[in-house]
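Re: the 181-residue chain
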Amino acid sequence: MKTRIGQLSVLFLFIAGCASSPFGKKVSEPFSGNAYESNNRFFRGTGKGESSADNIARGKADIEAKTILAGQVNTTMKQVADNYQGQTENERGADVAQKFQSLAREVMNTDLADLRKIGEKKYFNEKEKKYTVFIAYEIKKNAMFRFMKKQAKTDQTINERQQALIQKILDEEVKKSEAEN
């Protein structure tokens, strides 16, 4: 009986060792893990680009990483504006929230404040004659919010009352991002 159980155990271990995952082999790419994910202090984005030309591969990776960052910033600004509107629950709150979101879109369309490249790796596959480039960027949240404050001050479509409320909202966001330091 013991030998039969022992044989089955060995057979089971052999089969388990030979079996592969139904998803395939796990691949580890550069710039993955907690150090490259957004948190309370930073927006972070990574990109990957492939091409037979290294500059095109780099451009694709750059665009992908920046697109991810812009999406995160836009989503955060929408959440901040929605939270403000939910707290005030009046028509003026909706107007300020709309102006705030418009300001966020304008900032995203012109510039990503305090954008820092935190890594870039380039690989060349001899067999396929193809470059693969990985890029990682980050933006300090408090720097982004401060940049938005400056942009809001120069926006002629925002009246004084709305300006004060937007400055207050951004000040609160700066404090939140700095409190996590």
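Strands lie at 42-51, 115-125, 130-140.
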